[in-house]
């Protein structure tokens, strides 16, 4: 629950930041790379110019350039296929910055022709006990997933900067990989959080657990430091605190309520690459039935006759749906245009309190593996201006979405999938 003061100074800074971001989104421009480091979102626009497409990449490169000698950069990334970006990290090491990376093994095996890993390996080394390194999780396995659960991945996409120009303990949680399609074909978001030592430390501890790959002792965890909360996965069924993090969040929503003598309804918006977790789909339908406004833009559901999430969401009286999975070049070997973000926006009554505007974002798709098997991170942000900036992004993605409401397609149903390269 938020206090009455609502972190006024941080809200003002975030508001100014978010307004500039929304303006940049509308103009198709990336943010000024030299802007002050304040909390707030960054969005790319894959239909914009080169600067708009690479807005998140540019922000990360700016931070790498700002990293102070003796400081550290730690990151966990699913796919990293950007040789120039890799060289920027190696160059930072040459300036005295410790660089530590953990990636999924498929970063190498899925795109053997890409030179990024070779650059990182040569420039950082692979000894995980050193101050700089690049490491891989085991083949077909996340770093912290139980082998008995079957195949899994390190799907994380976060960056930690210990000291930049005028800012310390900077967390960047994003939905974006470092791949060409992540810039030019996929809609992505990132959230920049400087100076919150508790959240930064929680991410750092999680990173070290990824490095240790001690899946037997891993436990799902979360850390709150108002107005933020971070959640770290996997959360297997045999975890001491099992459950579905997203349905638990949605359980706190009240759809119909009275505020200042007026009857109101809570608005729920979901921008999601993959929505295949049946419990989440069922909960969203239930909230729509209960009186919430539920608006979803997605790229992949799953279809299982009467039991799939696609069928569940399309039941009569269900949420407003738009699919964004557009093979606009009619070439199945290239990436389609999609929403790759994974965010949830709640506006209304949450956890018993009205006038709430809260968002959750990160690497966590609403799929079974994202909950129980994969290495993932999710960040909650309780801030009006940031929420509204995400609503602007949601509306832009929704307006661009194809096939939109005509989503009875194999791609939207998850029968076929898009490549990432």
List the helices and strands and how they pair.
Blueprint: H1 8-27, E1 40-43, H2 50-53, H3 55-66, E2 72-77, H4 83-94, E3 98-103, H5 106-109, H6 116-124, E4 133-136, E5 157-164, E6 167-174, H7 180-184, E7 186-187, E8 189-193, H8 197-212, E9 221-225, E10 228-233, H9 245-250, E11 253-254, E12 256-259, E13 262-265, E14 267-274, H10 278-289, E15 293-300, H11 309-313, E16 320-326, E17 337-339, E18 342-350, E19 353-362, H12 368-372, E20 376-382, H13 384-400, E21 403-404
Parallel strand pairs: 2-3, 3-4, 7-17, 14-15, 15-16
Antiparallel strand pairs: 1-8, 2-5, 5-6, 6-8, 9-10, 10-20, 11-18, 12-13, 14-18, 16-17, 16-21, 18-19, 19-20
What keywords describe this structure?
Endonuclease, Chain A; 421 residues; 7-stranded mixed beta sheet; 2 domains; alpha+beta; globular
Describe the structure.
The chain is of the alpha+beta class and 421 residues long. The chain has 2 domains: 8-232, Endonuclease, Chain A (2-Layer Sandwich), CATH 3.30.870; 245-404, Endonuclease, Chain A (2-Layer Sandwich). Helix content is 30%, strand content 28%. It has 13 helices and 21 strands. It has helices at residues 8-27, 50-53, 55-66, 83-94, 106-109, 116-124, 180-184, 197-212, 245-250, 278-289, 309-313, 368-372, 384-400, and strands at 40-43, 72-77, 98-103, 133-136, 157-164, 167-174, 186-187, 189-193, 221-225, 228-233, 253-254, 256-259, 262-265, 267-274, 293-300, 320-326, 337-339, 342-350, 353-362, 376-382, 403-404. The strands form 3 sheets. Strands 7, 9, 10, 11, 14, 15, 16, 17, 18, 19, 20 and 21 form a 12-stranded mixed beta sheet that branches. It has a 7-stranded mixed beta sheet with strand order 1-8-6-5-2-3-4, sandwiched between helices. It has a two-stranded antiparallel sheet with strand order 12-13. The model is unreliable at 1-34 (pLDDT under 50).
């Amino acid at each position: 629950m938020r206090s009455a003061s609502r972190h006024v100074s941080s809200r003002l800074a975030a508001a100014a930041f978010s307004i500039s971001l929304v303006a940049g989104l509308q103009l198709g421009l990336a943010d000024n790379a030299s802007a002050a480091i304040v909390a707030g979102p960054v969005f790319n626009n894959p239909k914009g110019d080169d600067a708009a497409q690479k807005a998140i990449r540019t922000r990360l490169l700016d931070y790498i350039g700002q990293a102070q000698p003796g400081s550290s950069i730690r990151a966990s990334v699913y796919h990293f296929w950007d040789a120039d970006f890799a060289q920027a990290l190696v160059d930072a090491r040459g300036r005295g910055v410790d660089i530590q990376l953990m990636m999924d093994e498929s970063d190498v095996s899925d795109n053997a022709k890409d030179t990024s890993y070779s650059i990182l390996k040569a420039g950082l080394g692979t000894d995980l006990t050193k101050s700089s390194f690049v490491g891989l999780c085991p083949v077909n396995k996340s770093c912290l997933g139980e082998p008995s659960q079957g195949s899994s991945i390190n799907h994380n996409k976060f960056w930690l900067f210990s000291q930049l120009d005028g800012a310390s303990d900077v967390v960047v949680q994003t939905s974006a990989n470092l791949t060409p399609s992540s810039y030019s074909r996929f809609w992505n978001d990132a959230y920049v959080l400087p100076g919150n030592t508790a959240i930064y430390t929680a991410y750092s501890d999680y990173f070290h657990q990824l490095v240790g790959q001690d899946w037997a002792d891993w436990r799902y965890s979360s850390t709150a430091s108002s107005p933020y909360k971070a959640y770290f996965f996997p959360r297997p069924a045999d975890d001491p605190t099992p459950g579905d993090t997203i349905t638990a969040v949605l359980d706190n929503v009240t759809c119909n309520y009275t505020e200042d003598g007026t009857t109101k309804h809570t608005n729920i918006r979901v921008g999601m690459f993959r929505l295949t977790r049946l419990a989440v789909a069922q909960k969203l339908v239930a909230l729509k039935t209960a009186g919430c406004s539920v608006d979803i833009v997605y790229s992949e559901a799953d279809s299982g006759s009467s039991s799939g999430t696609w069928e569940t969401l399309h039941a009569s009286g269900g949420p407003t749906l738009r699919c964004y999975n557009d093979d606009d070049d009619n070439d199945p070997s290239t990436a389609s245009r999609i929403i790759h973000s994974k965010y949830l926006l709640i506006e209304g009554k949450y956890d018993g309190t009205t006038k709430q505007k809260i968002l959750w974002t990160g690497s966590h798709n609403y799929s079974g593996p994202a909950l129980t098997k994969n290495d993932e991170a999710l960040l909650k942000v309780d801030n009006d201006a940031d929420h509204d900036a995400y609503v602007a992004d949601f509306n832009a993605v929704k307006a661009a979405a194809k096939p939109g409401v005509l989503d009875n397609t194999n791609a939207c149903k998850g029968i076929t999938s898009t490549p990432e390269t």
